[in-house]
Amino acid sequence: MPKPFIIVTGADEAYAQFAGDLIASLERFQKQLRFDIGLLDYGLTPATRAALQRRVTMVVAPPWPFRPDSRFDKQIQARAFATRPFLPDYFTGYDAYAWIDADSFVQHPRGLILLMAAAQPQLAGVVPTIDRSYRHTPASRDWVRERYRMAFGVETAQRLATMPYIASGVVCASVASPLWHLWRDRFQSALEHWDGDRLCDQSILNHVVYLDNVAHHRLPSFCNWLSHLALPMADVAAGALVEPSYPRAPIYIVANSFTEKNVPRRLLRTDGKGAIECTLTLRSVRAALIAARAGS
């Protein structure tokens, strides 16, 4: 009998602490929402793998999934990008799948409920990088256009650049959604003429959604809050990170999307009493919020 839903993340040893933090955030809601957790092992030590394996349903060490490619098939980050379209192959027997980047954490069950609802038969759920609080810079827009150009050339890049960029840090789809096979097929095709030294799965995901017209739901930014585009604020009374714009509603899934992930961030308090300082992990955020409440 098919199982309803699995949430998958992945890590090498450098990201193991982040993956453990994400898993901790998922464990809080697992009994209530009844989902499984999968982990892709991109280079964990045996001890770390064993420790994480006790907390998840299954661990898989995926090989490079496409034809040999001397530029990318030995890179851990490239393999992490390339394996995301293959979740139904690695974790068989589920009705629907979600991917959440290891450097994220789930703060509110509403985010998971929306992922489950979006991944109905034949459908997918994606999160465009749109929010009234986000600040897109010329440099960030150039970054997006360059990733499109490397994958598809200038003409297609110009077409895709007119549409809201979808980040692949949180994505979900039913097992029957065409997203999976189209993502795989477009990926292999793009690899054959990739013009650049950095692989980007998001370029291909955007092509599949916008130009291949995969049926999908566009989920709100709360389902994958990109902190480098807008730092959350701290609601000490509620014990949660919230959007920085009024009405300062709780963020469901927080992504530590900065390049430097271990740098403490200064998050302004909604009550006007200064700020908390923490790294963007569940453990650090919770400790800072508890300390702030105790000192209020």
Descriptive report:
The structure is a single chain. This protein is of the alpha/beta class and 296 residues long. The protein has two domains: 3-221, Spore Coat Polysaccharide Biosynthesis Protein SpsA, Chain A; 223-295, no CATH class. It has ten helices and 14 strands. The chain has helices at residues 16-33, 46-53, 76-83, 87-90, 109-118, 138-152, 154-160, 179-191, 201-210, 282-295; strands at residues 3-11, 36-41, 58-60, 94-100, 104-106, 124-128, 166-174, 216-218, 225-226, 233-235, 240-242, 253-255, 265-268, 275-278. A seven-stranded mixed beta sheet has the order 3-2-1-4-7-6-8, sandwiched between helices. The longest helix is centred in the N-terminal third of the chain and has 18 residues, at 16-33.
**What general outline do the C-alpha atoms trace?**
globular
Largest sheet, described in full? Answer: 7 strands, mixed
Class by alpha and beta content: alpha/beta
Q: What is the β-strand count?
A: 14
The CATH superfamily of the largest domain is identified as Spore Coat Polysaccharide Biosynthesis Protein SpsA, Chain A
CATH architecture of the largest domain: Alpha-Beta Complex
Number of domains: 2
Quick tags:
seven-stranded mixed beta sheet, Spore Coat Polysaccharide Biosynthesis Protein SpsA, Chain A, 2 domains, 36% helix, 14 strands, three-stranded mixed beta sheet, globular, single chain, 296 residues, 22% strand, alpha/beta
